[in-house]
Known about the structure:
heterodimer, A: 269 residues, alpha/beta, Rossmann fold, 7 strands, B: 441 residues, alpha+beta, Beta-Lactamase, Phosphatase 2c, domain 1, 2 domains, five-stranded antiparallel β-sheet, 39% helix, PAS (chain B), EC 3.1.3.3 (chain B), coiled coil (chain B), Sigma-B regulation protein RsbU (Phosphoserine phosphatase) (chain B)
Amino acid sequence: MTGTDVLHRNNVTVTGAADGPPVVLAHGFGCDQNMWRSVVPALAQRYRVVLFDYVGSGKADPGAWDEERYSSLEGYARDVVEVCRALDLRQAVLVGHSVSSMVGVLALREAPERIGALVMVAPSPRYIDDDGYTGGFTAADIDELLSSLESNYLGWSSAMAPAIMGNPDRPELGQELTDSFCATDPDMARVFARATFLADNRDDLGEVKVPTLVLECTQDIIAPREVGAFVHSAIPSSRLVTLDAVGHCPHLSAPEATAEAILEFLERL
Amino acid sequence: MRRGPGGETGPSSTGAGAGEALAALLEDSAEELYESAPCGYLSTLMDGTIARINATLLGWLGMERRAVVGRKRFADLLTVGGKLYHETHFAPLLSMRGQISGVALELRAADGSRLPVLVSSVVKHGGAGEPLLIRTTVFDATDRRSYEEELLRRRKEADQARAEAEQARRQAEADRARLAEALSVLQRALLPEVLPRVPGVDTASYYRTAFPGRLGGDFYDVFPLGDDRWAFFLGDVQGKGPEAATLTSQARYALRAAALCSDAPEEALTTLNAVLAERDGHDDPRYCTVVFGILEPGGDTGGTRVRIASGGHPPALVLRGSGWLDLLSTPGGMPVGMLSEAHFATAVTELAPGDTLVLYTDGLTEARTGPDRSTLYGEEALYSFAADLAPATAQGAVAALTELLESFGEGLDDDTALLALGAPAPQPEPGARTDRTGGLH
């Protein structure tokens, strides 16, 4: 697979300052690179911003889907590394939302020359509770999420993707973009959900020696503050910043504060 | 129209009923409609904190208003799976689009029971376009969910059935490939892979099965007997397929063994006849036609002497170096294995340099020709073809006959085997050859 093939496969978008230091934004489980749209303008002023969709999400090439590869987070990490190689990025800052924080740890292990720092937005190395560890969920909870995905199966194909919805209040969003946003193939979504919520990357965190920013929200059901503290303490080279934001997606609910925290970290590198 | 208690319908009672209904309608304020609508209403701040909720939804949840308003967020009302789904899909979609409709979620009531619902939300924006609050309607989807689950189940069954059919198709393909491989291995056991090099004699052969993937019933072989003597045979088992193949295999090894015990070709056929005629327990008696021969040096004119015996097989062709065609007829020979006592015919000839002996099976002469494939090619046509062909080397004769066979196309519906044994013509003088080649320039 050539670099051009990878750029097409992962629907790679490059924006911002062409000569700026590279910043790669990796979306989490659920939607696609458009999740970053509210923080991109702030980053784009001084940095070369790289956005992509994992295979199985957004507008990535569905023909590249390989259930075995994408059944573990290593498969997603290979997407990240292959995008970095295709653009010949060096010492890039990898900003990963949610599961992509752990994908970033695995990508760093595979290609340390490509990645110089990590930003983890609402990370969790393990979602399921364990002896002496609070992940926030039980195994049964994760099964329930999988069945929630299933029960919206019919909705995906018929109601949800096409039947929406002008955006009179947000004319800057193209109709095509809003139509396809989050409209993931349910079979691929299920594989990604399993890879995400059944993973355990706690032992991998100790390998991270690069500067790392851990961003957590004050009230996040998916990544509670105990988990943020765990990640921070497991990576000695990390800083922990708690955003005054609710939910799991501060880049959507508090984009200014999120962008500001990332920029402050980038400028200190 | 309402019926009175006595079952009578009178103007007075109708008037009273209509009046009541009208009064109820007039009293149905917007507030009353909001609280008691047949769906749940909910307004939240942008962070999801519940600011208003209607009585219908509180009733479904079994919760007190004061335990909810200002204290819970919308996601708190959902099952854990629903919360995850809300965070990873619902909230981003709502943020992106400003509204979202018909998402399937489950509420978790105070008593722990679950209520499947369909949720639609819209963001209300202020005058400057800033998002102010989220309005949400919640529909009871219990019946619809079970219907959808049924649809989903059927769809999964259909997917499963399709996957199984695909698996079966692949299995069948693999089985076919394995069978074809097994057949080709068996077929190779019935025929020599390459003919041995016979000193002073050129050999060539050709074999084709009428149906690829099925075992053929024709066979041939060439093998040494010692003292510069060589044996050869070519035969045709009646019938096709595995039954014919077992007989082919028996015939080949019986002839090889018999040839070592006797110098007379007809005795090899007699031995084979005994072997085949004694085959017990076969409901389907089969037999074969065979030409068996021995090559030995020291013919009367210094060429290779050929002695053959035939059991019911068509005459062998001898393409003379002079351009003449001889038929090595063996009339009266009986098919081998048909009767326990059998007579076989013999013939003798000599291959002088430039002569070639050609053996064939009747797939060649029984090829169907003509515009409607209704006439057989026939022996006369073959003799005429061979006469035109002579003189020819063993390779040349087989190549020409192969070309003839291919010209029959679909008219060729039986197995066909060819075996040619030729005494090489003397090489022209090197000088003469150079001259001839030069002449072509």
